[in-house]
Specification:
Oligomer: single chain
Shape: globular
Number of strands: 9
Helix content: under 10%
Structural class: mainly beta
Radius of gyration: 20 Å
Order of helices and strands: EEEEEEEEE
Number of helices: 0
Strand order of the largest sheet: 1-2-3-4-5-6-7-8-9
Strand content: over 45%
Length: 157
């Protein structure tokens, strides 16, 4: 088969109080989840703050429409990703993120995840991270809760 893809993207200039971005795309490709070659259309749009304040947000909404080889709709999945970030100091941030994925044709939630991320830049290019996260996946009927502590340190030799 011959793979093809077309994308159209756009964004708002960075000198405004808010920033925005969007994309539309079409592809004719192998659908690995479904096991056949088909057409796929996707879209996303996002907005966020572009200010020098300590509090910022971003909201991204996207979707993907899958067609089977006969050109009939096989699935339409939508994805919502909000994020709030607070700069405690210039070197310390707290982020709250979320991702929710829905099967729009059947009206059911497929996946959800929520995270708290603390990041501290304690030395140039050296970071300490603390993460708490909760994820739930419908297919596996599993809920995962986990924490992570990470130190990234730049060694100058």
């Amino acid at each position: 088969f011959e793979r093809s893809e077309v994308k159209i993207s756009g964004w708002l200039p960075g000198n405004m109080m808010f920033r925005g971005f969007s994309e539309l795309s079409y592809s004719h490709d192998y659908n690995y989840l479904r096991g056949y070659v088909g057409d796929m259309f996707s879209h996303f749009i996002g907005v966020g703050t572009n200010s020098n304040s300590r509090l910022s947000f971003r909201l991204r909404f996207g979707g993907m429409l899958e067609l089977n080889p006969d050109g009939k709709i096989e699935g339409y999945t939508v994805n919502l990703q909000p994020r709030i970030s607070f700069a405690v100091t210039k070197d310390m941030t707290i982020n709250l993120t979320s991702q929710v994925v829905f099967n729009a044709l059947e009206g059911e939630m497929l996946f959800s995840a929520y995270s708290f991320v603390f990041a501290y830049n304690f030395y140039p290019k050296s970071w300490l991270y603390f993460v708490l996260s909760h994820a739930r996946e419908k297919e596996a009927a599993v809920e995962n809760n986990y924490g992570l502590f990470k130190i990234r340190y730049l060694l100058m030799i």
